[in-house]
Amino acid sequence: MSRPRHLPDSAPMPPLLPASPPSGMSRRQWLRASSLVLSLGLSELAWGATIVAVRIWPAPEYSRVTIESDGALTAKHTFVANPPRLAVDLEGIELNPALRELVAKVKADDPFISGIRVGQYAPGVVRLVIDLKQPALPQVFSLPPVAAYQHRLVFDLYPTVEVDPLEALIAERLQDNKAGAAAPRPLPAPAVVAGAPAAPPAPAAPAGDPLGELIAQRQPHRPGAATPAPAPAPAGGSAAVGGPALRPSPALSPGHPTPPPPSASATAPAAPPAPAGGGTPAQGQGITDRLIIIALDPGHGGEDPGATGPAGTREKDVVLSIAHRLRERINRTTVNGSPMRAYMTRDADFFVPLHVRVDKARRVQADLFVSIHADAFITPTARGASVFALSQSGASSSAARWMADKENKADQVGGLNVRVQDVTVQRALLDMSTTAQINDSLKLGSALLNEIGSVGRLHKPKVEQAGFAVLKAPDIPSVLVETAFISNPEEEARLRSPEYQDQLADAVMRGIQRYFSRNPPLARNRST
User: Which residues neighbour 455 within 8 Å (Cβ) at sequence distance 6 or greater?
Assistant: First the structure.
């Protein structure tokens, strides 16, 4: 029998068990412990980490593979470009049934992973090969134990070209138009579109075409290039410039800029000018003629289940269902003749870091940001819905501070790669929230609170404030809605009900409409 390397050859082997039961342990307990140790043997005792669970989280933005173990794992990884695959050597473990489960967990619709192979590469080394459907940028990192999780080794597979949320929104809108699923939306008031061509086959996007305007504004503008006539285009872009406004290929191709829409002065002299910096919606503005974007943020997701109710209902599932219902209502609603469009920070079960949620809303230049959650407390008696806005000077109550602290820990549970660059810079920028943004957020929160109170009980009769990280967009009115206490058995049952989810979605929709009726969105230009 080989000796441990740190002992000299003359040193005796230390006994695996004491010769007699320790003080306080019966002889029967001591014999059971002895049998367990002897059945494990020396090889199992030498390797401390054991795989306890494996998970795969596919999503359009990235796919994640998580290996959870009772001890920290040591891993070495290599990415092979052709064919694309990620090879990972896990050291200090033996192949077990939990690792073999990874092979069967790959879904056919996973956008990145085509298959996984696992085997015992060498004694104490398990090799994992993740075969990919497309080139990817892998991130491999470890997470310490937190909440219900033990040690986690995470593989995130990102596309080589980052998904543009604005392009995704445009593509979704174009697909809906092509399918004809939605009924035609009302046109803006005649005064707004005066001078615009009546027939749709006009060569350039008319002022009354919000999607054409959004697509056009996706590209940088040159001064003086705001006429409906074809503008000079880069090489290869002349055909795209002269095409119809709703043509998908020039709109989504980075190399084919689309001309800006007709100037406001030529078609709508009465429209107010956009404020400097693209501020938040302000009271007293008139009818606008553009797409109004509402960012919906279903909380948690993926590795982060959020709160869990007594019957096992997971917060991440409930709020995603409510967000989907609210998206349907937003997408068929107009404000003063301008169509609304919902953009979801996540539309499936995957983890999105808090700062990425805010960044997504800013990249699509959302008019409002609504984060949807389901509250939980240490006792099951707490009940009622709440609405929160950001605070620059501290929480409005100890409960609000506790709630913000809990929600701000979502990145730890969900699994944020702290080594990703620019996270600190992005968070510093998001701390520059303005007083105007907070005031507008309080107005939005009050409108939502009044409507939610008509379908369920309120926890507090006014909008609370605290330092929620997800509400720190400096230029978007932002609120966090706690729909109910999922830790309350009665409210958990209501949250599981499709009928109550519809009532909540209707209430939030009415609140958004009430806010815009008093604070019409500005007729501003969107820039990227």
Answer: 500, 503, 504, 506, 507
**Interatomic CA distance for residues 84 and 113, integer angstroms:** 10
| H or E element in which residue 479 lies | strand 478-485
CB 138 within 8 A of CB 56: no
Which segments of 255-337 are extended strands (E)?
A: 292-298, 334-335
Q: Is 80 helix (H, G, I), strand (E, B) or coil?
A: strand
Q: Which residues contact 95 (CB under 8 A, 6 or more apart)?
A: 118, 119, 120, 126
**Does residue 101 contact residue 87 with C-beta atoms inside 8 Å?**
no
Tell me the H-state helices in 285-348. 315-331
Residue 63 phi/psi, 5-degree rounding, is: -115, 145
- What span, in angstroms and rounded, lies between the C-alpha atoms of 29 and 25? 6
- List Cα–Cα distances, 244 to 247, 248, 318, in angstroms: 6, 9, 41
- Which pLDDT score is estimated for 49? 85
Taking the CA of residue 81 as centre, how many other CA atoms within 13 Å lie in the half-sphere pointing to its CB?
A: 1
Distance CA 157, CA 105 (A): 16
Tokens for 388, please give them.
Answer: 């929160």
Cα end-to-end span (Å), the chain: 68
What does the pLDDT average to over 473-491? 96
Q: Dihedral of the CA atoms 195, 201, 202, 206 (nearest 10)?
A: 60
Separation CA 426–CA 260 (nearest Å): 30
DSSP H/E element including 388: strand 386-390
User: Looking only at Cα atoms, what is the longest distance across the chain?
Assistant: 100
Enumerate long-range contacts of 324-332, CB under 8 Å, 24 or more apart. Answer: 325/501, 325/502, 325/504, 325/505, 326/296, 326/370, 326/372, 326/505, 326/508, 326/509, 327/296, 328/505, 329/505, 329/506, 329/509, 330/294, 330/296, 330/509, 330/512, 331/176, 331/182, 332/182, 332/183
Residue type, 217: Q
> Does 503 have pLDDT greater than 90?
yes
Backbone angles phi and psi of 402, in degrees to 5: -60, -40
Check residue 94 and report its DSSP letter.
Answer: -
Banded model confidence at residue 301, pLDDT cuts 50, 70, 90: very high
Q: Is the pLDDT of residue 295 over 60?
A: yes
Does the pLDDT value for residue 387 go beyond 70? yes
Q: What is the 3-state secondary structure (H, E, C) of 189-222?
A: CCCCCCCCCCCCCCCCCCCCCHHHHHHHHCCCCC
Pairing of strands 85-91, 74-80: antiparallel
